[in-house]
Specification:
By secondary structure, the protein is an alpha/beta fold. 25% of the residues lie in helices and 17% in strands. It is built from ten helices and twelve strands. The longest helix is centred in the last third of the chain and has 14 residues, at 252-265.
Length: 318
Amino acid sequence: MGTKISWATDVWNSIVGCSKISAGCKNCYAANLAKSARLQQFPQYREVKEWNGKIAFVPSQLTKPFKSKTPQLFFLSMSDPGHDNVKREWLDRMFAVMAIANQHQFLFLSKRPETVKAYIDELTADRLYEAAKYFWKEGEIPKRLWRSLEQLKDYFEKLEFPLKNLWIGTSVENQEVADRILDLRDTAAHIRFISCEPLLERVDLRKYLGICVGCQTCEFRGDHQIGKPMVDWIVCGGESAQKASDARPCHLDWLRSIVQQCQMAGVAVSVKQLGSNPIDSRMYIDGVAMTTFQVKVKDHTDVNEFPEELRWRQHPVF
């Protein structure tokens, strides 16, 4: 049990596999991990080794959340739930588990938020009840959760949407894909979040955070609130790699900018890591960095080694 991901407490990988669609995918940690000797001993990872869009459903992992009595923050770390090859019945079963295991929080992160939105728009309690029959077997469900099918049907009929323990997020690694946030905004979710990791350039999120981008009221500084943020939480970080030279650089000014924008908007922010190839600047002229240098840290995920202004590990209120 457990995970090294700083903003989750465990992983839940009842689906695995994906394919690359944008710049952030180039050095995908999940694609590399799936090929590792440690995971290749499991049939589901041998099935998706090529990371070419093949998705494998893993029934043995589906009811994992039922086994933990203490609340966890589960993250789907080895797939994209919005991928076109994720079958609807698989998602139905996962959503049924989440609805029953409501002491836990679940994070769904997708680079395909439009597909996630379309799925959630069509979701019904009846579908989840029918999906739950797939795994609802006496003797396999912990006694503390067990109820008859009649009781289970009644439970789902009283279910409220969106699920209060579901967080929906999308990845924004550069400005080009920032409009993914618009699909996220329109998705029914209790918590909406953005993952700016790996952060590949400076990203201006102000219009998505309800911040002015320059007007007479703020003397064209672009630093005052004019609307409600579209998201509740932002995670940011540089790219990690076993060899620092394999990681694309992350300028700490890019991370500082994300933190500052979140502070202006009152949005929770978490700096996950500096990345394996962090870069900082010494001298600026008119706000433009003129000299840069490699930042030396022993552990780019250790918040105690971050510059003080980047030591942010907030979570949204839920």
